[in-house]
Amino acid sequence: MIKKYALVTGGSRGIGKAVALKLAAMGFHVIINYKSHVEEAQKTLDEIIVGGGEGQLMPFDVENENEVSEALNAWIEQHKDVYIEVLVNNAGIRKDNLLFWMTDDEWHHVVNTSLNGAFYVTRILVKYMLNKKSGRIINIVSVSGLTGMPGQSNYSAAKAGLIGLTKALALESAKKNVTVNAIAPGFIETDMTKDLDRDELKKRIPAGRFGKAEEVAELAGFLASDKASYITGQVISVSGGL
Ligand code: NDP
Questions:
Q1: How far, in Å, are 33, 168, 225 from residue 91 at the CA level?
Q2: What is the pLDDT of residues 130-175, one digit of tens each?
Q3: Is the CB of 142 within 6 Å of ligand 1?
Q4: How remote is the CA of residue 81 from the centroid of ligand 1, in Å?
Q5: Nearest alpha carbon, ligand 1 atom 9
């Protein structure tokens, strides 16, 4: 059987790691992107290999268009007979502040990572999916991008922008059997949320608890599978009812 390839941006930790493990368990060769935590990325790859799967590391900063195109085009050049059929745009950061205090750096860094980064990566890979008439793009957004969240105008704007990209690209790609969907997690237990007051926030979550990265990864696995072939342009929350 021909191996299928999947790329997970920000696959070294948290939700991206759980998604990488899930896709590897489904039989994908998983390309694990990360920015700086090489040891964590290597741990993800080691876990994939111990589980009988296969993968590789691919460091680049999604904010940096040159790094993105160099890394991806080098891979494409070395893998002429295959293509990346599943893309999970997961890399993201928070830099919370009230809007009237927000610095240019806090704004641009967050928007560049979640929104521009997804654009740079997707623009390169989607054309191969369209040519081959098969592909899955899964964008990890956030409940913040649906409802807004105080102190997160940068993050909410970036995620709302990525929801817009998801819907427009889904319309462009549906006839070519390329689906584009977004997953909107609520509060998930990862490094990104470890500085938050979890006990206080739990009171706002109908399920009464934070979610686990694996609970997000299950949906990503489903959206990447053949079973989800008629679902496109959707934003699905994994939020315990938040
Ligand atoms: P973590 O902070 O645990 O992990 C972030 C991941 O993104 C790491 O792998 C990190 O790589 C990578 N990353 C960050 N910046 C870049 C960059 N410029 N280029 C490449 N990779 C980068 O975050 P989570 O797992 O919690 O979040 C994953 C996604 O889910 C994000 O998009 C986030 O916005 C979204 N989300 C998370 C929620 C939560 O409650 N945790 C809720 C809603 C959405 P490295 O290890 O090298 O730093």
A1: 9, 20, 21
A2: 999 999 999 999 999 999 999 999 999 999 999 999 999 999 999 9
A3: yes
A4: 31
A5: 10
Distances (CA, A) of 59 to 5, 25, 27, 68: 16, 22, 22, 9
Residue with CA closest to ligand 1 atom 32: 92
List domains and CATH numbers for the chain.
4-238 (3.40.50.720)
Residue 204: other Cβ atoms inside 10 A = 11
pTM of the model: 0.98
What is the whole-number distance in angstroms between the Cα of residue 141 and the centre of ligand 1? 11
* Catalytic residue status for 155: yes
Q: Is 205 helix (H, G, I), strand (E, B) or coil?
A: coil
Per-residue pLDDT tens for 168-207? 999 999 999 999 999 999 999 999 999 999 999 999 999 9
